[in-house]
Specification:
It contains seven helices and seven strands. A four-stranded antiparallel sheet has the order 5-4-7-6. A three-stranded mixed sheet has the order 1-2-3. A hairpin with a 7-residue loop joins strand 4 and strand 5. The model has no long low-confidence stretch (mean pLDDT 84). By secondary structure, it is an alpha+beta fold.
Length: 208
Amino acid sequence: MSAIKNVMRSYVRNAEIDEFLQEELRDAGYGASDILKTPIGTRITVYVTRPGLVIGRRGLGIKELTEKLEKKFNLPNPQISVTEVEIPELEPRIMCNRIAQMVTKGTAFRRAALWALNSIMAAGASGAEIKIAGKLRSERANYEKYRAGVLPKSGDPAEKMVREATTHVLLKMGLYGIKVKIALKDLVPPEIELKEEVGGEVDKAQAS
């Protein structure tokens, strides 16, 4: 049981670190993080759209972030590396945060959702779905969905192709929930596999 508890404790800690990084690096376009425990400490790789904001002038930003992580989560010798996200439009968490920022600045939720949907599809996604829930138009809570392309809902294709993320934003009308699902073309399993026949066998078959 102790081994199981240690694994569960590690998962909980990683989830807390991920939530902390999402808040700290929201302006830098935080997308995800990889946390790896090594014999010399804890190695954390963060994926953002604007690495310069994380690193800071002369590395002061990343040094401050390292100190916060070490103090808040009692991490042994944390080492942070920053990687730029190549296609931000295909990262659900980044698109969630962009929609949240737009509605916070006064953009209508429908316009923000449609803009994000078009951006995702233009970046090469197979399909996408955006769901926004909350007091959208009245005092009664409701939700709206916006879809485009092909988005598997169940089975093996859904597990392999679809990535999703959820975020929340507090507005005057109340709390909005934003959920983004993106299906990636590169992860589509091939339906038909073509095999080349050996030339000699084909020639023999024709000769006979």
